[in-house]
């Protein structure tokens, strides 16, 4: 998948670009609703013997449009989003920088530059996609802006139990520890990448060595607590348990969250390595224990429950 990072105005020449079928949207989470839009574009591209593309935006519009400094955390940071789109067999990715200049474009100017100007011959979007200044353009008026240069498909909402699948609902599930419910909407386990960094080595000292992970600051973490996870490393997948929190048993002053993973039946040095963590089930809240022995007993109990959980999944 070739990736192009664009700003307004971009410098790509239409005549140098292949004719493509493209999906368009922010696609945070690349959930099952987003996947339907993207897969519709990929299938249409194959039918037309064209390349497939995805047009997305970064950062989130709220970073630009809301007053004051905004920092948005994403269900799929841009790295994870690219990984997902690669798996969906997308040929080209256009990442458009969302800035004030872009937000002020009229719907027609947006279409002229980022659809017609990118040689999009068929555009696929969700039924509620909007574009141009203050979202004045939408799928109901798209025909007015095509200039006869492209056709388009509006994909209906995807629902589960009569409720629309949305990034907002997934965020709500993650914030309350409803990991399995979030994963149903995602259509896969939440997956976040992290690099192993040196920690305080307490896990190793108590018999449960952990990989301390440095995740992207843009990554939206689930609720603090203990989780059943799978760890992907060098084309191998391992089961394990992860903790998100501040380690209150050892320190009360800490406020920043750490992410630590104990990989079952694995003891090799992982410092500096990148791991991909699949989050499968929330088990319990983070607790402050009266002593180390009480903490060890609880971790041992966590391991039994999580191993049993994965055993029942197989």
UniProtKB/TrEMBL annotation:
EC numbers, comma separated: 2.7.1.26, 2.7.7.2
Catalytic activity, as annotated: FMN + ATP + H(+) = FAD + diphosphate; riboflavin + ATP = FMN + ADP + H(+)
Keywords: ATP-binding, FAD, Flavoprotein, FMN, Kinase, Multifunctional enzyme, Nucleotide-binding, Nucleotidyltransferase, Transferase
Pfam families: FAD_syn, Flavokinase
UniProt key word Transferase: yes
InterPro entries reported in the protein's UniProt record: FAD_synthase, Riboflavin_kinase, Riboflavin_kinase_bac, Riboflavin_kinase_bac/euk, Riboflavin_kinase_dom_sf, Rossmann-like_a/b/a_fold
Database matches in CDD domains: FAD_synthetase_N
Gene3D superfamilies: HUPs (3.40.50.620), Riboflavin kinase-like (2.40.30.30)
Known pathway: Cofactor biosynthesis; FAD biosynthesis; FAD from FMN: step 1/1; Cofactor biosynthesis; FMN biosynthesis; FMN from riboflavin (ATP route): step 1/1
Any one Gene Ontology molecular-function term assigned to this protein's record: riboflavin kinase activity
Domain Riboflavin kinase: 185-311
EC class name: transferase
SMART domains, sorted: Flavokinase
PANTHER family: RIBOFLAVIN KINASE (PTHR22749:SF6), RIBOFLAVIN KINASE/FMN ADENYLYLTRANSFERASE (PTHR22749)
Family in the record: Belongs to the ribF family.
Name of the protein: Riboflavin biosynthesis protein
Organism: Virgibacillus natechei
């Amino acid at each position: 998948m070739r990736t192009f990072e664009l700003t307004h105005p971009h410098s790509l020449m239409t005549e140098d670009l292949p004719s493509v079928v493209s999906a368009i949207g922010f696609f945070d989470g690349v959930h099952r609703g987003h996947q339907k839009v993207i897969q519709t574009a990929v299938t249409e591209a194959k039918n037309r013997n064209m390349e497939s593309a995805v047009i997305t935006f970064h950062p989130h519009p709220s970073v630009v449009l809301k007053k004051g400094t905004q920092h948005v955390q994403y269900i799929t940071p841009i790295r994870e989003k690219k990984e997902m789109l690669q798996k969906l067999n997308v040929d080209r990715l256009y990442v458009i920088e969302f800035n004030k200049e872009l937000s002020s474009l009229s719907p027609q100017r947006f279409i002229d530059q980022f659809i017609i100007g990118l040689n999009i011959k068929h555009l696929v979007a969700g039924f509620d996609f909007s574009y141009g200044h203050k979202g004045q353009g939408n799928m109901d008026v798209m025909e007015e802006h095509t200039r006869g240069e492209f056709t388009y498909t509006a994909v209906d909402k995807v629902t589960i139990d009569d409720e629309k699948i949305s990034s907002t609902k997934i965020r709500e599930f993650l914030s309350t520890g409803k990991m399995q419910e979030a994963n149903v909407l995602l259509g896969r386990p939440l997956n976040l990448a992290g690099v192993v960094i040196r920690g305080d080595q307490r896990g190793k000292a108590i018999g449960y060595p952990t990989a301390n992970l440095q995740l992207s600051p843009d990554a939206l973490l689930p609720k603090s607590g203990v989780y059943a996870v799978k760890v992907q490393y060098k084309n191998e997948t391992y089961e394990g348990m992860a903790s998100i929190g501040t380690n209150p048993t050892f320190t009360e002053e800490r406020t920043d969250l750490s992410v630590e993973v104990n990989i079952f039946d694995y003891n090799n040095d992982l410092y500096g390595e990148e791991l991909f963590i699949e989050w499968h089930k929330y088990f319990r809240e983070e607790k402050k224990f009266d002593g180390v022995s009480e903490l060890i007993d609880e971790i041992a109990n966590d391991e039994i429950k999580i191993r049993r959980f994965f055993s029942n999944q197989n």
